[in-house]
Amino acid sequence: MEFKVVGIVGAGQMGAGITQVVSSAGPHVILYDLEHEVLDHALAQITHRLNIAVKKGKLTEWVREKILKNIKLSTKFEDLFQCDLIIEAAPEKEEIKMEIFEGLDELCPKTTIFATNTSSLPITRLAATTDRPDRVIGIHFMNPAQSIKLVELVRGWLTSDETFARIEQFVEKLGKTVIVSKDYPGFIINRIFMPMINEAVCTLTEGIGSAEDIDTAMRLGLHHPMGPLALADLIGLDTCLDIMEILYTEFADSKYRPAPLLRKYVEAGYLGQKTGRGFYQYPPESSTS
Ligand code: NAD
User: Fold this and answer.
1) Which site from 9, 144, 269, 285 is most exposed, i.e. has the minimal number of CB atoms within 10 Å?
2) Is 152 one of the annotated active-site residues of the chain?
3) Do 212 and 125 lie in a common domain?
4) What pLDDT, in 10s, does the model give residues 40-96?
5) CATH number of 115's domain
6) What does the alpha-carbon distance between residue 3 and residue 219 come to, in Å, rounded to a whole number?
7) Of 152, 181, 210, which closes a domain?
8) What would the DSSP string read from start to end of 95-164?
């Protein structure tokens, strides 16, 4: 593997999943977040998933230990200095990501590549906060990162061919299939998919069908593996709202207006599986947080 030490910024559901994928492929991972509890929770989730794989005979105990040894947890931003690739997976808020990129740019050697797992924010604008826009790229893992094979790579306007080629090779070595998107709001996946979730919320709001019937319609009628409302609960309703806000602002087009009911759920703290309640309710043992 070309990258020996990979930093992951943000240990939420995506950061934890990406850490599992990368550490399983060989590189050391420094998983950084603001709070120890978040990091401990991420490691517990990864360990739990690896234990299940061992029980099912898909992984040996020795390999599980090797993967876990590859992971270092840190709340010290300076620890990211030693990374040759950093993947940012902090919340979908431009100001948070910009601050992280500015900090990383000051901290890291000029050779370090910065990637973001953003679902919708412009890579070119995030890259412009650094002095190395040629070394900034979008690596959009799907959720759950450890099991979904697709990764959407997004080139900023100034991403160099060399950066793109190195990252494409890295992602393929993680066992993923790459698609490439231009740097346009929502890229390919969320340009199509997030308005569909938003429309499902509008359909629910207008009382056209129950949450269960809307989801069943899409699962059985259109062969989607999960219904849009259940999937929104998995993604996090806060993240869905953030993405809709970005599409709405960037395109300045009313067709991307976030559903008011989605906003209400977020205001109420019903964020989906991670808080135990969204369009559905989740008993504590099935919650992802
Ligand atoms: P999350 O809320 O589960 O996790 C975000 C983590 O970032 C939290 O642990 C939080 O403590 C941490 N954080 C906040 N500020 C930070 C900072 N300044 N420095 C370091 N860490 C910080 O969110 P998530 O669902 O994991 O999403 C993360 C990113 O991945 C977002 O950009 C999102 O759009 C993208 N994404 C999400 C999904 C999904 O289905 N949830 C899928 C693909 C991409």
Assistant:
1) 285
2) yes
3) no
4) 999 999 999 999 999 999 999 999 999 999 999 999 999 999 999 999 999 999 999
5) 3.40.50.720
6) 39
7) 181
8) HHHHHHHHHHHHHS-TT-EEEE--SSS-HHHHHTTSS-GGGEEEEEE-SSTTT--EEEEEE-TT--HHHH
Question: CB-based burial of residue 283 (10 Å sphere; 0-12 exposed, 13-18 middle, 19+ buried)?
Answer: exposed
Residue 286 covered by a domain: no
Give the residue numbers spanning the domain of 223: 193-273
Output the six-digit token pair for 130: 């650094």
Residues 138 and 207 in one domain: no
Which residue has tokens 């517990």?
44
* Residue of 87, 95, 100, 119 best suited for mutating to test ligand 1, as the one with most atoms within 8 Å of CB: 119
**Boundary residue ending a domain (181, 216, 232):** 181
Round to whole Å and give the CA distance between 236 and 186. 16
Which numbered atom of ligand 1 lies nearest the CA of 243? 34
Any domain includes 100:
yes
